[in-house]
């Protein structure tokens, strides 16, 4: 079993608006974070937030894994009214990038080797919309062609990180162990 992570990113430069939307997510939609309404009332939800660059705000939470982060991204995109990208990296075999806007999935790309697609019989993009993917992430045509030709999940994470100007290699579980993440992400309790 290899390395795994999941995170989400809001295309925004407004940290205050993002924090308010995260508060709304925690208080009104706790189920997408793996909590019941009563659990959310009884204990604080901890999230780690970073203004990663002038265009993106990154969010980490311990419930985000491949398979759960998409629902949080979908809900958050409805609350914030900005594009939200989720990233789910599983066992060094799959990276899935999903883009949501106003509560709808607009585009998705899964990067993996063909044997992985064969092994996971149901593994396919929910909505393959490269035009939206490219536009939302502000990727030039030639760079996008290079990106979508990649089959290695690790290389896809590295390439997309480079293209959008922020590291996608981050997970809430890594924060206690990686000083660079502790410096980059602020802890928020909702």
Relative strand content: 15-25%
Helix/strand/pairing class, anyone?
A: alpha+beta
Query: How many β-strand stretches?
Result: 7
Oligomer: single chain
Overall residue-averaged pLDDT value: 93
Distance between the termini: 33 Å
Low-confidence region ranges: none
Q: Which descriptor suits the 3D outline?
A: globular
Number of helices: 8
Helical residue percent band: 25-40%
Describe the structure.
- The chain has 8 helices and 7 strands; from the N terminus they run βααββαβββαααααβ.
- The protein is α+β, with helices and mostly antiparallel strands.
- α1 packs across α3 (69-80).
- The chain is globular and about 45 Å long.
- The model has no long low-confidence stretch (mean pLDDT 93).
List keywords for this structure.
37% helix, 190 residues, 8 helices, 7-stranded antiparallel sheet, alpha+beta
List the helices and strands and how they pair.
Layout: E1 5-11, H1 15-28, H2 37-42, E2 46-51, E3 56-60, H3 69-80, E4 84-90, E5 94-101, E6 104-111, H4 114-119, H5 130-136, H6 141-148, H7 153-164, H8 179-184, E7 186-189
Antiparallel strand pairs: 1-3, 1-4, 2-3, 2-7, 4-5, 5-6
Quick summary:
The protein is an alpha+beta fold. It is built from eight helices and seven strands.
